[in-house]
Amino acid sequence: xxxxxxxxxxxxxxxxxxxxxxxxxxxxxxxxxxxxxxxxxxxxxxxxxxxxxxxxxxxxxxxxxxxxxxxxxxxxxxxxxxxxxxxxxxxxxxxxxxxxxxxxxxxxxxxxxxxxxxxxxxxxxxxxxxxxxxxxxxxxxxxxxxxxxxxxxxxxxxxxxxxxxxxxxxxxxxxxxxxxxxxxxxxxxxxxxxxxxxxxxxxxxxxxxxxxxxxxxxxxxxxxxxxxxxxxxxxxxxxxxxxxxxxxxxxxxxxxxxxxxxxxxxxxxxxxxxxxxxxxxxxxxxxxxxxxxxxxxxxxxxxxxxxxxxxxxxxxxxxxxxxxxxxxxxxxxxxxxxxxxxxxxxxxxxxxxxxxxxxxxxxxxxxxxxxxxxxxxxxxxxxxxxxxxxxxxxxxxxxxxxxxxxxxxxxxxxxxxxxxxxxxxxxxxxxxxxxxxxxxxxxxxxxxxxxxxxxxxxxxxxxxxxxxxxxxxxxxxxxxxxxx
Amino acid sequence: xxxxxxxxxxxxxxxxxxxxxxxxxxxxxxxxxxxxxxxxxxxxxxxxxxxxxxxxxxxxxxxxxxxxxxxxxxxxxxxxxxxxxxxxxxxxxxxxxxxxxxxxxxxxxxxxxxxxxxxxxxxxxxxxxxxxxxxxxxxxxxxxxxxxxxxxxxxxxxxxxxxxxxxxxxxxxxxxxxxxxxxxxxxxxxxxxxxxxxxxxxxxxxxxxxxxxxxxxxxxxxxxxxxxxxxxxxxxxxxxxxxxxxxxxxxxxxxxxxxxxxxxxxxxxxxxxxxxxxxxxxxxxxxxxxxxxxxxxxxxxxxxxxxxxxxxxxxxxxxxxxxxxxxxxxxxxxxxxxxxxxxxxxxxxxxxxxxxxxxxxxxxxxxxxxxxxxxxxxxxxxxxxxxxxxxxxxxxxxxxxxxxxxxxxxxxxxxxxxxxxxxxxxxxxxxxxxxxxxxxxxxxxxxxxxxxxxxxxxxxxxxxxxxxxxxxxxxxxxxxxxxx
Lengths: 484, 484
Hints:
The structure is a homodimer.
Chain A: H1 11-27, H2 40-47, H3 51-63, E1 67-70, E2 74-77, E3 98-99, H4 106-113, E4 119-121, H5 128-132, H6 136-151, H7 161-173, E5 183-186, H8 188-200, E6 206-211, H9 215-223, E7 227-234, E8 238-239, H10 241-250, E9 253-259, H11 272-285, E10 289-292, H12 308-311, E11 317-322, E12 334-337, H13 342-352, H14 358-369, H15 372-398, E13 404-405, E14 413-417, H16 424-433, E15 436-440, E16 453-457, H17 464-483
Parallel strand pairs in A: 4-15, 6-7, 6-9, 9-10, 10-11
Antiparallel strand pairs in A: 1-2, 3-7, 5-12, 7-8, 11-12, 13-14, 14-16, 15-16
Helix pairs in contact in A: 1-3, 2-3, 6-14, 7-14, 8-9, 8-13, 10-11, 15-17, 16-17
């Protein structure tokens, strides 16, 4: 990092030039949303300027909303760094329950995800490049070589015992007390969610969900012939708890199915107190909660958000998660945790898929106990935060003026709201013809209420191809808006 | 092999001594049911006797029912070699449909299967020792090392394309013409069956099944809230086609779910003509057939039996199978093949388990294309035939007189029928206390009509521990019979 050498002037210019350097670090992705800025002392030494000059520059950036000072901790890149645009408006879904019948087009998202000629902004799948750095495959290779014989068996009904112990150890870190026998390994989070719903609902029952929510949840509801009650959800504060209270008081809710943290697609979470309030409400109404914590480990803040289950040990919570978003989409290893409903869960699992593949579970157990997962998580959190930052800046630059953008606090998707009567499904068809895939908003709601929204996956490292695809999407969006 | 040297006499004694030697080969398992006996010329040379002496000995064994002469082919160990006992009687199930609610105890079978202190005659799981000889794990280790990065993704909805092509190639060998796009990889045969049933039935529908049938099928029916109509099935000739015709004419059958070959637990199959007759009946009534061909590759006869799908290309058949019984129980890779119902199958699969683990599929594809699977199959067919033969002899020796035994033509399970009002579930509880697991007969029927039967798995190489466990089971059975 070169010193400030424009040599044109006094302290005024010097601190402005320094501020520009910090902005360049942000633009280049060296600094990302939520990260601590280099210390005042370090910048002063590196740039050969006085501490007061650095402070001056940082205060200027603070005024511009780029940095924020935190007491006794230094300066941080603010959440709103890469864009000053408004966040999407809180959803106002129609009164439920509604029958769930999501677009059949959802299946095509996975097909497009496998095509190298399509820019992969559709499915929320992390790039294989990024994941391979974790070295899990080497663990699988070794496990197959060393334990292949012993592991070529059906696993016990709950799945690999060592993996379940590792999962329980990790859960303890955020206050979730789990017995290994209260955990069962599943074919990804998808199977965990379908088993959870089978355990506490029957065909025709109504399940309360966030709006928007992950289209995969809606597919599970559809496959089990359940109805959905959509709850208003804000892009910054998450689920509307007052609305939940009203729905519980007035509708026949059989279960709730909420994301623990970083709602997909909004990237927002309830606070711990908010989660406690939800648990209290559900307990009062005797309604079980199924929580989907698949994004919980991909947090950009100082610590991992707590799952609901960690905040109310007596509550009737079924916890679902997987390794698919953090390290192993190709391994199909997820898990379900429940004290009360394990018997029903195991019966259904045994009947419908028997058990999961043994060696991938054994390899993951070795990987977790090696400590490799933690350093891998640190790496991918940084990578996803940077990807989101870059994507946000690109959208900010390329999309029509009134486009609203989320500020995800974790995960790796962005959600855009386009003004007016915009139909992102039409944009989807045009975008695919341009070799770009994204997830159209309507599939995130059973009432198709988010047709003017779209989700962009930021799972792939930023490159010119992705940058160009955002430019193209922005232009196509602007063109379609003009015609509306 | 030493020459006949008792030296006590002429040709009469010599051929009898030779016959005893052949019986010893049978008892020691060197010769098994269905195998060709050593040629007359070879035995004559090895034993230093004349050809007519050998022929004399072989004719004696033929008279005793141990060998059978086949024109232009030589002498073979007869199917009935190891025992002269009667086969179980054809089932006469009650009129259906009946609600399916199989014993919850089924789950415990899998738990016992994982316990090294229990003799594993319960679950039909091949021994890991036997399977590891195939070397599939080395393929997985290499695939993880070489392709780990590229395969750490969700597979396309139908699963690994190379594996599907390999499956189609193999299917052609027995006349089954499959397009790779008409095949989807599943989490074992269990998921294939549940997806097939989901595709052609709705909750409350009636499905016709063999009686007895694999308890896992019953669990799938139960999980999907389907009803069962049990059809009489004979231990030698299989499904009673006339009874099927009558049921189709008089009951609201929505689908049939039959084993392609080697019914589990009976080990019997329909002939090709029988299968064609079934297809013709089903076509006339517009009823789809789901076939479970999981044991098809484990045949003891001269050639692989044809699946239904190979015998009627236009018929509405959904084919289900997996690699779990032949090479990879721990991999959870099965497949479903259907031209007509693929869209519904994929929708359900996507919603309920998304997709299967990628690397195990890739490793299996490499294994199949290497030709390793064929030599492995030859090896395990011999091993299973031998295991069944040994088990049959032991049962013959140790079980009460009127016990009936199947003569499986493939697979690796034996089915025993104990006379009278014997309750094998009670025997099960006692046997577990003795450290022995088997599958009690009642779980093979939704009407629990086979309570006096039991299934013994012959998936493990014969050893003293298994031999002793059969002695124990025989004694316990005799004791219980006395008390009845």
